[in-house]
């Protein structure tokens, strides 16, 4: 059954006790699932699928790393991960990706290859 239909049935079953936070996956009354329970369930899925061990949290790190490596703006990545500030994402991920720093430097170099008179920068 699709999550939306399952949730609608749960909402109808608990009536006014439903806590509507706009979440897709919830406790039976709409409250958020406890993070430890979600992590445990994720670990079970990973094991059952025969995959190497990975923490649920690592998926966020992987997504951020791949997004930055593909050229995504750090502000977008920070928002995607729901960080409270861009500084957290910048401190966490940019040091891990030398290619991000290199790409930035190359972009600046492309913009700065000509002096105002149209002459190439020496060197």
What does this structure look like?
Helix content is 56%, strand content 0%. It has a domain at 55-114. The relative contact order is 0.06. Helix 4 (74-80) crosses helix 5 (86-93). The chain contains six helices and no strands. The chain has helices spanning 3-14, 35-48, 56-69, 74-80, 86-93, 98-111. It is elongated and about 65 Å long. By secondary structure, it is mainly α.
How many strands in all? 0
> Low-confidence spans: pLDDT under 50, at least 5 residues?
none
Largest beta-sheet characterization = none
Rg estimate, integer Å: 23 Å
Number of helices: 6
Q: What is the end-to-end distance?
A: 64 Å
Structural shape: elongated
- Strand percentage lies at under 5%
Structural class: mainly alpha
Compact overview of the structure:
This protein has 123 residues and is an all-alpha fold.
What is the secondary structure topology, with strand pairs?
Blueprint: H1 3-14, H2 35-48, H3 56-69, H4 74-80, H5 86-93, H6 98-111
Helix pairs in contact: 4-5
Highlighted features:
123 residues; mainly alpha; 0% strand; elongated
């Amino acid at each position: 059954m699709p999550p939306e239909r399952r949730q609608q049935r749960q909402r109808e079953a608990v009536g006014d006790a439903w806590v509507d936070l706009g979440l897709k996956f919830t406790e039976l009354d709409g409250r958020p699932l406890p993070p430890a329970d979600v992590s445990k369930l994720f670990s079970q899925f990973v094991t059952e699928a025969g995959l190497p061990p990975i923490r649920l949290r690592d998926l966020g790190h992987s997504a951020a790393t791949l997004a930055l490596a593909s050229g995504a703006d750090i502000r977008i990545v920070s928002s995607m991960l729901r960080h409270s500030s861009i500084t957290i994402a910048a401190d966490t991920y940019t040091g891990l990706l030398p290619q991000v720093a290199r790409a930035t430097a190359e972009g600046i170099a492309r913009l700065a290859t000509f002096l105002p008179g149209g002459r190439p920068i020496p060197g």
